Amino acid sequence: MDKDFTSALKKRLQSPQKAVIIPHKNPDGDALGSTLAWMHFLHFENHEAVIISPNDYPKFLSWLPGQEQILILNEKQELIQKKIEEASLIFTLDFNSLGRIDKLGDMVSNAKGDKVMIDHHEAPEDYAALMYSDPQMSSTCEMIYHLINALNPVAFSPEIATCLYTGIMTDTGSFRYPSTTAKTHKAIAHLLEEGANGTKIHELIYDSSSFNRIKLLGIALSNLIQIKSLPIVYITLTQRELNSCDYQKGDTEGFVNYGLSLEGIVFSCIMIENEKEGKIKISFRSKGSFSVNDFARNYFRGGGHINASGGMSTDTMSDTVARFEQAVKEIANQF
Ligand code: 5GP
Ligand code: MN
User: Fold this and answer.
1) What is the pLDDT of residue 2?
2) Closest ligand 1 atom, CA of 97?
């Protein structure tokens, strides 16, 4: 825990603030869990606080306590503009580059309020007046946990505990990735004591699939391809395949992990076409020392963490696949 950051933030929070809290685009469990927990905390401390999301979030997260208060960029543009202009503090959570929040990036960088970054990705950009950046942390939710513990542990509530448990659980693959430490488990134990219901949260996140999602998983798995003589697999999903299963936001969450469940495979990729945005969203996952963060940065204008990253391509699916296969050839000596 960064003492300078904590004391500087504590000082700022001694007077009433107007806060805006922003998660990254396509917010996941950690992004939503951390922003919501932080909103509840700021409300408890009698500050004004509102969450502004660059876009909508999936159904499997639309039960998180407080989610109904989230403002979504394209739905409430004028109000959002006003909130950002008036904010005394702008918290950016679970990302470290303003490019990850689309149009909100310019609005935030032009705003007069001080920016505060709380994030666990590598290579933070230099836009924040106050910065708590720790790539060793399992999740932004774990960072928010430590922060609330340092600022005022009395503020923990079942709502905050539920939000933080969810983000830690989803970002650690249910407490199994190497970023999960004894400290993470101690945080989780405390969150259970504060009212998080682990079994219920697991069910709401992992046992809430629609029939169509499981059919789409079937298509994804039948499209799985291994790169010849390398421990690498990839999956493609075209817009047509998504449409055939009435694709809903969030349906493909977790599909890329099936590649890593194959014995001996250490690098898995999924490429998902988005016709409307004219691009292919790519997710990378790895096991061990192969850095998909570097791979995404070097070949697909992306980034993330050593074992989980993402990127994109504006080429067609077949050109993107060809580019992936070429990129993999170039790094084949790492396996
Ligand atoms: P996902 O594959 O679940 O979308 O993302 C995995 C990880 O990579 C997340 O931590 C996410 O923040 C990061 N990530 C995904 N897409 C991008 C991207 O386009 N740019 C950067 N810098 N990070 C990304
Ligand atoms: Mn995260």
Assistant:
1) 83
2) 22
Q: The tokens 């310019």 sit on which residue?
A: 106
Protein residue whose Cα sits closest to atom 22 of ligand 1: 303
Residue 1 confidence (pLDDT): 75
For ligand 1, which residues put their CB under 6 angstroms from it?
24, 97, 283, 302-305, 308-312
Distance CA 137, CA 181 (A): 9
Q: Would you state the CATH architecture of domain 3-206?
A: Alpha-Beta Complex (3.90)
Label residue 296 exposed, middle or buried (CB < 10 Å: 0-12, 13-18, 19+): buried
* Residue 24 CA, closest ligand 1 atom number: 12
What 318-321 contacts at long range (C-beta under 8 Å, 24+ apart), as own/partner pairs, is 320/271, 320/280, 320/282, 321/234, 321/236, 321/271
Encoding tokens for residue 34?
Answer: 């951390």
Range list of H helices, 45-113: 77-86, 104-110
C-alpha angle 57/63/67, rounded to 5°? 60
- Cα 228 to averaged position of ligand 2 atoms, centre (Å): 32
| Sheet-wide strand order for 232-237 | 225-226, 232-237, 267-274, 279-286, 308-313, 303-304
pTM: 0.94
Q: How many C-beta atoms surround the C-beta of residue 321 within 10 A?
A: 18
Question: Contact, 89 vs 118, CB < 8 A?
Answer: no
Tens digits of per-residue pLDDT, 183-213?
999 999 999 999 999 999 999 999 999 999 9
Give the model confidence (pLDDT) of 122-175 as tens digits.
999 999 999 999 999 999 999 999 999 999 999 999 999 999 999 999 999 999
- Domain ranges in the chain are 3-206, 211-334
Ligand nearest to the CA of 279: 1
Query: Yes or no: is domain 211-334 CATH 1.25.40.20?
Result: no
